[in-house]
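Technical annex B. To support the medicinal chemistry partners, we prepared a structural model of the target in complex with adenosine-5'-triphosphate, based solely on the information shown next.
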Amino acid sequence: MQTSIKTGGQSAVTAAKGSSDRPRLLAADDQQHVLEALDLLLRPQGYEVETAKSPAMVRAALATESYDALLIDLNYTRDTTSGQEGLDLLSEIVALDNSIPVIVMTAWANIELAVEAMRRGARDFIQKPWENERLLTILRTQVDLRRALQRAERLAAENRLLQAEGRPEFIATAPQMQAVLEAITRVGPSDANVLITGEHGTGKEVVARTLHAVSRRASRLMVSVNTGAVPEALFESELFGHVKGAFTDARFDRIGRFELADGGTIFLDEIGNVPLRQQAKLLRVLEAGEIERVGSSRSLRVDVRVVSATNTDLRAACTSGQFREDLLFRLNTVEIHVPALRERREDIPALSVHFLTRYASRYRRPIQGFEASALQLLMQYSWPGNVRELRNTLERAVIVCDAGVVETKHLPPGFGQAPLRTAANDPDAVRLGVGTTVEEAEKMLILKTLEATSNNKTRAAEILGISLKTLHNKLKEYGAASAEAVPGKEEVPSS
Ligand SMILES: Nc1ncnc2c1ncn2[C@@H]1O[C@H](COP(=O)(O)OP(=O)(O)OP(=O)(O)O)[C@@H](O)[C@H]1O
Ligand SMILES: [Mg+2]
């Protein structure tokens, strides 16, 4: 069992290493100076850039090479700015492999074309002349997302193997979780007491189970006690047992959790909630390695490894006198901290795929995966309830999902409306510098909202607080206005 956990960890590390390669891009535009400008911008940022001057060259490149993202212009013929060639190319690429993020370049203010491209599966668009920062942000987001998904798929494949052999399910893709996994494999086999810290729902119990599973005690029990939930009066009896007649209700001898765990592991959950008087009793047992059943004066040796967990700051509790320092010292021979989910977003795709697979099979739903925008929302959310909240969110999504993939509409109402500020949802994505006209701002807002709703006009109108008719009129207006406003598609980028 130990070896298999190690194997899982190592291959994930290898996967992480593989993804640190330079991302490969294919940029397509019929204008040599645009390609040169892109190359000049992107190469120093660590991208490998290949270029194509026509749709035919893009097709040829895709037939033999693989890329992390494509950046394609929509117009290739001088005498038309319809973008039809580009749109056709886009549709072809998406049909071939919709996991490659395609970002389209459109002439400034050619809103209709951008919207149509998004509808056909472009992941994002950039208007020419482009702003370097915005282009870099879009690319980084899309490449990160693609790589995270690829890792998740690899891991899900590995994980299915692990599950098939009945081993603990422990997903760890993010570097911080790789460190946790390494700690587990290092200290697991020893008998050292381990204190696991972390917020609610981060996976402390999963860590405890995995520790037990890789220990030499794996064939014996791991006995869990939610120490915080045991009533004070029953604490001793629960943990150490009692003999018949020890107190009014003690009609039989009762074995305590420590005795039950003899030879195995005892998991003391929510240890921070144990009152001081009980802490003293616990300390005595840990120091002596012996228990006494309540009402008995006979000492029993127990061979138990203690793993405890808390979401409170026990050091602060020691300082304020609520927790015994000597007890903490006994418990935390090794401390493993499980980071909050928002601190290790790389884990979100892997965990999402994991829970999706679990619930799709449990509820017998033929769901294949996620729509990119839904996954993007999952990745941006702050997850105050951590992995447990993600699990519940996906269980719900599977239940309400009526499509082949989980879409944004399957996430809870209002989900992700106030996400953390990240590159992907940077409010600057709608750039409203001083000098932007109200009309221009309105236009950008409408377009961004359409993008966020996957071009669902009804929903976009709802969010914007305007009627569907007004939205249609606005779009028509922009289309007409942009026909005049487009100063020619091949602008040299502003830098
Ligand atoms: N790395 C992980 N891989 C797979 N599943 C996980 C992982 N981390 C957490 N989970 C799942 O998330 C849920 C919450 O995890 P767990 O109960 O271990 O959290 P916890 O930190 O003990 O929470 P609490 O502090 O509320 O007791 C469980 O269903 C668990 O299986
Ligand atoms: Mg727990």
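Notes passed to the chemistry partners:
The two ends are 56 Å apart (CA to CA).
Residues 169-172, 198, 200-206, 311, 354, 387-388, 391 surround adenosine-5'-triphosphate (ligand 1) (CB under 6 Å).
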